[in-house]
Amino acid sequence: MESFGARLHRAVAERGPLCVGIDPHPGLLARWGLDDDVHGLERFADTVVEALGDRVAVVKPQSAFFERFGSRGVAVLESTIRQLRLAGSLVLLDVKRGDIGSTVAAYASAYLEPSSPLHVDAVTVSPYLGVGALAPMFDMATAQGGGVFVLALTSNPEGAAVQRARTAGGRTVAQVVIDEISQLNAGAQPLGSVGLVVGATIGETGHDLAAVNGPLLAPGLGAQGASAADLRVVFGSALPAVLPAYSREVLAAGPDVAALRAAADRVLADCRAALTGS
Ligand SMILES: O=C(O)c1cc(=O)[nH]c(=O)n1[C@@H]1O[C@H](COP(=O)(O)O)[C@@H](O)[C@H]1O
């Protein structure tokens, strides 16, 4: 079975290095002229799928905005996932799960087992119960060709107090996460299937990402204040592995399908220039 790392590598080569989030904030629903209810949610998600599903490498639905509407919102999420996969984009579900290992096994089956209604290509996870507790997720990803993105250095200002705290050995908590994931990806070709999340907002932090050999999801661009030009500062020599992620910056262009496509094209051009230095 083809690995997620290989599938992502191909998708980025074909469609360019870009992940667009589906984050139907109440304010965006209003801006699009939609009601803040499950019908507005469905219309919003369907429009993003129509505009971007056949052209963006990775689409990242934010589960929270679907869960707000209970089981009917989750049904919209299931349908959004199916439509995105049919349209050919990889689906990264942003749920930031993390728990003791036996429970992580259930999350792994919910998101990475092909028979699950919420089956996606990859999922975000939190390592704060220990990277080792996530082993069932990594195992399921390996078995099913799925991907996992582990929070390392998040884009929000509150993250630094925990993530940059020093462990007894002198490394930061984030560096321990980075090093453990680097070991999991060692030797993978063309790219490992376990990625990290590193915010584009964090500036130069001195963390060593050189050995990760997996994708580096970079949220925080646009609405949170970072620009594509900041990627060089944050990622340095690890730039080729960066997958820039935008939500509100692109979504604010809707509901017009052509305008959404133009916004995605614009940020993709910015990212290409920043990642290649051209
Ligand atoms: O895992 C994420 O995607 C994520 C990690 C992080 O450090 N910061 C972060 O903003 N995110 C998510 O990325 C999206 C950012 O949205 P915008 O700020 O609108 O581009 C939200 O869905 C966040 O939950």
Automatic annotation (TrEMBL):
Domain of life: Bacteria
EC number: 4.1.1.23
GO biological process, alphabetically ordered: 'de novo' pyrimidine nucleobase biosynthetic process; 'de novo' UMP biosynthetic process
Keywords per UniProt: Decarboxylase, Lyase, Pyrimidine biosynthesis
Catalyzed reactions per annotation: orotidine 5'-phosphate + H(+) = UMP + CO2
Pfam families per record: OMPdecase
Pathway: Pyrimidine metabolism; UMP biosynthesis via de novo pathway; UMP from orotate: step 2/2
Active site: residue positions: 96 (proton donor)
Segments forming domain Orotidine 5'-phosphate decarboxylase: 17-263
SMART domains from the UniProt entry: OMPdecase
PROSITE patterns, per database record: OMPDECASE
CDD domains with a match to the protein in the record: OMP_decarboxylase_like
Enzyme class name: lyase
GO molecular function, one term: orotidine-5'-phosphate decarboxylase activity
InterPro entries: Aldolase_TIM, OMPdecase_AS, OMPdecase_type-2, OMPdeCOase_dom, RibuloseP-bd_barrel
NCBIfam families given in the database record: pyrF_sub2
Stated family: Belongs to the OMP decarboxylase family. Type 2 subfamily.
Protein name: Orotidine 5'-phosphate decarboxylase
Organism of this sequence: Salinispora arenicola
Lineage of source species: Bacteria, Bacillati, Actinomycetota, Actinomycetes, Micromonosporales
